[in-house]
Amino acid sequence: MYPSPALLEGLAKSPWVHRPIVMCEYAHSMGNSTGDLKKYWEVIRSHPNLMGGFIWDWIDQGILEKDKDGKPYWAYGGDFGDKPNDGNFCINGIVAPDRTAKPALWECKHVFQPISVSPVDLKNFDFTVVNRQDFTGLEPYTLKWLLRENGVEVQHGIIPAPACAPGENARFHVPVDQDKLKKDAEYVLNISWDLAKKTLWADAGFEIAWNEFTLPGHKVKPAAVVSGKARATENGNHITLSGKNFTVVVDKAKGAVSSYKVNGKEQFVSPLKPDFWRVPTDNDLAGGNHIFRDMRVWKDAVAHMTLQSATIDENQSGVVCTYRLPVDASTLKVHYLVEENGTLQVSADVLKGDNAPDLPRFGFTVEVPGTLTETAYYGKGPWENYWDRKSGAKLALYKTPTSDLQYKYVRPQENGNRSDVRWFALAGKNGGLMVRGGAKVDFSVWPYTAPDLEQAKHIDEVQVRDFFTVHIDYKQLGVGGDDTWSAQAIAHPPYRLSAKSYQYSFTIRTVKSIAQAEKLY
C-alpha cells in the first residue's frame, strides 16, 4: 500500500518477487492532491510485472448540510457531534460528493489514456502512435488534429487512423500547412482520438486520448519596452514614479507598490507585494510532513523583512530595493520599473540562506476591484492545474468569469492555480489589467483573501469579498499526495522550490478590454 514510485520500481526489479504486482491503494487524493501521477505510470509502463493500482479514493464522502443562514456545505467527521472522528479524512476522492469532476480527475483521465502519440520528426509532423489497448484496434476512433497560434486555433483537420493492432504502434503524418506559420508566434499542435460512433457509455465525439506538442523554431517576440524617463521623487518611506498619465508609489519598508494610478484611477485595492506562503493543502498538513512544517517560517517573512537599501535608477524610471528576510539570513531584491506608457515591470530575486527550508511559493499578490469580472489567459487549462499535476491540462487561450477560476474543496485550501501562463487579463466594463510573464508565470484569482481561506473549515465559512485576490507566481510547491499522513505527502523533489536562488519577472499594464489584451500579446 502507498509505495513511492521508487519503491514500486524496486519491487518490479526485485529478484525475490516472481508474481504480478498491483497497488491495492496509492495516490491518496485528499483535497488538492494527486500530484505526479504520471511518474507512477512511467514506472508501471516500464515493467511488465506491474499491473497498476487503485487510487484511494473514488469519491469525497461528504454529506450535504446547510448552516444557520441556509448556506450549503459538505459536512464531514465531527460535524454531527460524533466523537471520536476522522475529521475530513474521508474527503479523499477524485470526484466531489455530488459526483462532479474534481480537477484531479482530468489528470487521471490523461495519464490513464489508452492511446499515446509521440513525435518521430516534429519539424516535418511525423508521429508514432502506441495502442495500449488489449483487444481493440484504432478503428473505433476519429483521428483529429488542430494547431493553435498563441493559443488560438488556426488550422485543423481529420486524417485516417493508421492500422494498429492492440499493443502495437504505427506511424502517421499530420498535414499542417507550414507556409502559413510565422516565426514570431508560438504554435501548439494537438492530436486527439475521439469516438467515431455512440457507445453505451459515451456519445460520438467523446475524446478518448490526446497529446500536444510545441513546435520548435517559433517564438513570440518579447514585449516592446516603451522607454522614457519617469520623474522620481522621494518622500520619507515612499518613492513616487510619475509620468504623463500615471503614478506609481513604492513603499520602501514593505517592498510593495502601495499605489498604481493610470489616468487618475487607482488600479489596486491593496498593495502589490511579495509572497512566499500558500494556504496549506491537506497534504501540507499531514502529520508526518516535516518538510512543509519547516516551511512555516516563510509565512510571515514579508511582514518581518527589513530594508537594507533602496536606490532610484539612473534614468529615474525605477526603484531597486533589497531586503533581509527573517529566514536564515535570506535576501530579497525587488526592482520596480515604469515604462513611459505606464506599464509596470516587476523583477524579483530571492537568495536563500544556507540552511533555509524550501519555499512554499515565490511570487507576488495584489487585490484588484471586484468589477473585473471577466478573465482571459494563455496557459494550461481550462481546469485548475499545478506544477506536478498539469499533464492533463491543454495549453490554449481560455476565457472565463473571474469567479470561476477558484475551485471549492470540501475543506477550504489552496486552489485555482493555472500553470505555464504566458499572459492573463482581468477586465470589466471600464477596462482592466493585463499581466505578462517575462517567461511564464503561474496565477490564481480568488474572491476572498488567503486568511479568509486558511481559517475556514467548510466552504460556507469562506467570506466572499467585493474584490479579487490575485497571485502572480514564479511557482509554488507541487501538491504531492503519495499519502496524506507521512513524509511522503510532500510533492516529489522535482516539484519543490529547493534551489539556492530564484529569479523571475512580469509586467502589469492597463487595458480597455480582454480583446485589447489579446492583441497586445
Summarize the structure.
The protein has 521 residues and is mainly beta. Helices cover 9% and strands 40% of the residues.
What does this structure look like?
The chain has three domains: 5-110, no CATH class; 113-214, Immunoglobulins (Immunoglobulin-like, Sandwich); 231-520, Distorted Sandwich (Beta-galactosidase, Chain A, domain 5), CATH 2.70.98. It is 9% helix and 40% strand. The chain has six helices and 28 strands. The protein has helices at 5-13, 37-44, 103-112, 290-295, 450-455, 514-520; strands spanning 21-26, 50-55, 63-66, 72-75, 115-121, 126-131, 141-149, 152-159, 169-173, 187-195, 207-214, 231-235, 238-242, 246-251, 256-262, 265-266, 270-275, 306-312, 318-324, 331-338, 344-351, 361-369, 374-381, 394-401, 418-428, 431-446, 467-476, 501-511. Strand 20 (331-338) and strand 21 (344-351) form a beta hairpin. The longest helix is centred in the N-terminal third of the chain and has 10 residues, at 103-112. The protein is globular, with a radius of gyration of 25 Å.
